[in-house]
Amino acid sequence: VLETFPLTANGKVDRDRLPLPEWEQYREQYVAPRNAIEQQLAELFQELLQLDQVGIDDDFFELGGHSLLTIKLVDSLRRKLDIKIQVKSVFEYPRIRQLAWQIQHNKFDDASASGLLTTLFDINPNLNTVYCVPGVGGLSTSFIQLAKAAQGSINIKAFEHKGVADGSQPHSSINEIVDAFLNELLADQQEGPYYLAGHSFGGCVAYDLAVKLQEMGHEADVILLDSVLFPGLLSAKDSAVLDKTPDVQQIMHQLEQNSPELWGEKGVLTEQELEQYISRVAQVYSLQKTMSDDYVPANKFNGKILFLCAEESRQSFSDSQYLISLNKLKSSGLYMDEIKGSHFSMLNGESAHKIIGKIKEFIN
After folding, report:
1. Is the pTM of the predicted complex or chain greater than 0.90?
2. End-to-end distance of the chain based on CA atoms, in angstroms?
C-alpha cells in the first residue's frame, strides 16, 4: 500500500512514477489452458491485465480487472473471437474455466438481451438482494467495492444506464428508466420484499421504482446514497452547491486523477477508445443531469427509507433545508446516518463496509 501518491509539479498524480501492482499474491496455483477457447481467453486476459501468464482458475478481478477493462474484454471477445456476451457475464464467471464452459455450451444466447441488470459476484439464494442504481452517467461497476464488502451477508445486483457501456440509445426520461428497470427487476425476483438503493441521481430512480412496486402490491424499501430527492426545496445557497456538480470534463479529470491506469502509454484504453467512451458519458450525463434537475418524486410511498449522506456533502447544505427535503419524503420510517468521505469516495474502502453494515441493520 502506498503511503502517498507521487505527484507532478502541478499537483497531479504522476502516473509514470507509480509502481506496478503486485498481483502475484492473488494468483491461484497455475493450471494451463486445456483447449483452444481457454487458450484464447488466457491470451486476452494476459493482454488486458499485462501479465505474462494467466491460468484457467485465476480470477479476472483479483488479478487487477476493473470496470473499463471488463468493457474492453467484452469488446475484444466480440471483435477478435466473434463471441458476444454481456458485461455482467464477466462478473458472474470471472475465471477462464467458468467463462470458457459457458461459451462452449452456448449459454450466452441471450447476449442480445437488454443487459440492464448485472450480478456483482457470487449470489447466495438464502440472502437478501439489494438492487443498486448508479448516479448520472454511471455504470453498475461503480458498486464493485460495495459488492465486495457485502459478500457473505447481502447479494448486490446493479442496473446499467443505457448508452455508456455499449453506445446504445440512452433513455430520455426517468419514467423510461424506471419502466425498463422494473421489467428487469420483476424478471429477476418475482416477489418482495424489494430493497432498492440509488447513488446520487440513482436515488431518484430507486425511489420511483419503489413507488411503482408498491402500486403493484409489493413491499419495497429504499436506500438513498447521497441522493437529494427535492432539489426544488433547496435554498439559493444550496442550489448554488448543486449547480457545482461536475460537468463531463471535470468528471474525466477525476477519472484521470483516480484511475491513472486508463491513460498514457500504459493505459488500457487507446486514444480512440477513450474518446468514444468520453463521448458516450457526455451524452448520457447531459440527458440525466437535466432529468435530475427537473425531478419531482412520485407520491404515496409508504415504505422505509435509509438516507446515507457523504460527510463532505452533508457539510455543503444548510441544516434547515437539508431536513426539510428529508421530512417531505412520504415514508413510514426515515433513518439517517453519515458516511465518511465524499460523494464518490463513500462507495469505496472502509466507507463501503460501513454502508453495508448500515444496510444490514436497516433490512433486519
Report:
1. no
2. 35
* CA atoms 334, 338, 339, 343: torsion sign: positive
The span from the CA of 327 to the CA of 337, in Å, is 14
What is the bridge-based pairing of β-strands 304-310 and 194-199? unpaired
How many CB atoms within 10 Å of residue 345?
Answer: 17
Strand partners, 118: 158
pLDDT at residue 21, as a whole number: 46
The type of residue at 187 is: A
Measured in degrees and rounded to the nearest 5, phi and psi for residue 168 equal -70, 170
User: 68 to each of 166, 292, 336, how far by Cα in Å?
Assistant: 12, 25, 33
**How far apart are the C-alpha atoms of 92 and 190, rounded to whole Å?**
21
Q: Which of 258, 261, 329 is nearest to 296 (CA)?
A: 329
User: pLDDT digit string (tens) for 178-227?
Assistant: 898 998 899 889 888 999 999 988 988 999 999 999 988 999 999 999 88
pLDDT at 144: 83
Contact (CB, 8 A) for 259 and 143? no
Beta bridge partners of 130: 156, 195
Q: Is 317 within 8 Å of 241 (Cβ atoms)?
A: yes
Higher local confidence (pLDDT), 34 or 7: 34
Q: Span 34-46, mean pLDDT?
A: 92
Distance CA 269, CA 303 (A): 43
For residue 333 the three cell numbers come to 420510517
Contact 295/231 with Cβ under 8 angstroms? yes
